[in-house]
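Quick one before lunch.
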Amino acid sequence: MGGKLIVFEGIEGCGKTTQLQRSCQWLTEQLGIEVISTREPGGTKLGTEIRQLLLHGEDAVCDRTELLLYAADRAQHVEGFLRPHLEKGAWILCDRYTDSTIAYQGYGRGLDLELIDQLNQIATGGLQSDLTLWLDISVEVGLDRMQKRGKSDRIEQASLDFHHRVRAGFAAIAQRDCDRVVRIEASGSEDAVEERMKRALSQAMSRWGLNC
Ligand code: TMP
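Model of the thymidine-5'-phosphate complex:
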C-alpha cells in the first residue's frame, strides 16, 4: 500500500486538531497500519522553534517575514519528515499545510497569491496532499471556542476581518481545487463532525481502491 498525505485545514476553533486525533485512531483500526500525525508549523525540531517564534515570540513579525518563516518550516518538514515517511508507505495526517499559507498570508494578510504559490512550490518540491479536509465553521463560532479555551496566540489575536478573509480564502481554494479539497461542516458535536470525517475518508479510500 502506497503512502498518503491527508491534510486537515480550517480557521481558528474549527476543531481540526481533535478531529485529526479521532481520524488517526479510526484509520489505524481500518487499515491495520500505523498512521502518523504531524503539524505545521512545528512538525520537526527546527519547526518547533520556528512555531515558537511565529506564534509566541516577543517581536512583532512583519508579513513577509511571517510568510518566509512558514515556508522555512514547511521545507524542513517536507524534506526531513514527510517525504521519508511517505516513501516508506506511511499514511500521514498533517494539521495544516500549503492551503493555510494561501488562506492566512494570501487572503488574510493580502500578500501576492502568485508569489505564495511559487514559495509553496519551493518549500514542498511539488509534494501535494492526496486529500485535504477543510473543516468549515463560522468565524464567530470558531473564535468563541478559542476564547473559551483561554490564552490566544499572535494570529488568533488578529482582527475579525482578518479571520473572515481567511475563511473566504479556504472557500476559494475548495472551489478551485474540488478534487483534492473536501469541505466538512464543522458545526455541531464532535461526534457528529467525526461521522462526517469518516464519510469523507471512506469515499477517498474507495477512490484509491481501498475498502473499509
Ligand atoms: P494551529 O496549528 O494551532 O492552528 O496554529 C497555527 C497558526 O499558524 C494558525 O493561526 C494558522 C497559522 N498558519 C499560517 O498563518 N500560515 C501557515 O502556513 C500555517 C501552516 C499556519
